[in-house]
From TrEMBL:
PANTHER family: DYNACTIN 1-RELATED MICROTUBULE-BINDING, TUBULIN-FOLDING COFACTOR B. Residues 226-261 form the CAP-Gly domain. SUPFAM superfamilies: Cap-Gly domain (SSF74924), Ubiquitin-like (SSF54236). Belongs to the TBCB family. It comes from the Eukaryota. This is CAP-Gly domain-containing protein. Keywords: Chaperone, Cytoplasm. InterPro entries: CAP-Gly_dom_sf, CAP-Gly_domain, TBCB_Ubl, Ubiquitin-like_dom, Ubiquitin-like_domsf. It comes from Coccomyxa subellipsoidea. It is found in: Cytoplasm. Its main location: cytoplasm. Pfam families: CAP_GLY, Ubiquitin_2.
């Protein structure tokens, strides 16, 4: 027999049918009821559960216990209607839930009679009451690949290393120590130092003795306030291509550009050198 091919219209109609209220996943069996659950030790109405009307009161208590931490033997159940009026106390363990004719939206209120229950005194809602695990320094130091070990190694290589400094390097930005930040809140910071330099002049950058040509002098959006010098380096020891955060200040190949404070740049007769003896400090 040839297979029947469904058209797009047939498939969409099937999807609409499945997702429509009352069908498949949205269906509620006639023997189930949706009840809200509240608890004497918990502040909020904490859950809505579907209960089978054929369940015994004991089975209902056991199911509730898995959600609220109260043992069935410590539980008194009150059934309330939608307005909050008490309908029945579910005291007979063998009695079926359906005996009480609950309706969707009614409330099962759990009263916990055990003062040492998991739910008592806010233990299930107030995390500040939970004892936290605290690792000793000795145990932490014995672990590998920790931040403390990473920091120690970095500071061994660079005594002035900080996490902020490393983030600046990774982002291609100049690192400004915290002690200098207050000084550099002035928009004219190092204006005098910048005035002795000129675009097109050969220069040497220190520390490090890197050489190149000055291509830009001025302020840079995205960098700390004050004046900056853009240098096209002779060797690919820079960190950019003459741009900062998408804004271009001069043209050069990637890795040849660097932005530095004017006081680190000396202009003069500095011809190109072949020796590779550079440092990455105070630049991007």
């Amino acid at each position: 027999m040839a297979a029947t091919m469904l058209t797009r219209a047939d498939i969409q109609a099937l999807k609409d049918y499945v997702s429509a209220p009352g069908n498949f996943g949205q269906n509620q069996a006639e023997s189930t009821v949706r009840l809200h659950v509240t608890h004497s030790n918990l502040k909020a109405e904490f859950i809505e559960l579907r209960m089978d009307l054929h369940m015994t009161v004991e089975a209902v208590k056991l199911k509730l216990g898995t959600h609220c931490g109260t043992l069935a033997s410590d539980m008194i159940l009150h059934l309330k209607d939608g307005s909050g009026k008490l309908v029945a106390i579910l005291a007979e363990s063998h009695r079926k839930l359906g005996f009480f004719s609950p309706e969707d939206g009614w409330v099962l209120h759990v009263i916990d009679t055990n003062p040492n229950s998991l739910s008592a005194r806010g233990w299930l809602e107030d995390t500040s009451k939970v004892q936290k695990y605290v690792m000793s320094d000795a145990d932490y130091d014995a672990r590998e690949n920790t931040y403390r070990r990473h920091k120690a190694q970095k500071q061994k290589d660079d005594p002035e290393w900080t996490a902020e400094k490393e983030l600046c390097m990774r982002r291609g930005m100049p690192y400004v120590p915290s002690a200098q930040k207050e000084v550099e809140e002035d928009e004219e910071h190092q204006a005098a130092e910048a005035s002795r330099l000129s675009v097109g002049a050969r220069c040497e950058v220190n520390p490090g003795g890197k050489r190149g040509c000055i291509r830009y002098i001025g302020k840079c959006a995205g960098l700390p306030l004050g004046y900056w010098v853009g240098v096209h380096l002779d060797e690919p020891v820079g960190r950019n291509d003459g741009s900062v955060k998408g804004k271009r200040y001069f043209e050069c190949p990637l890795g040849y550009g660097s932005f530095l404070r004017p006081d680190t740049v000396n202009a003069g007769d500095f011809p190109e050198i072949d020796e590779f003896r550079f440092s990455d400090e105070d630049e991007i």
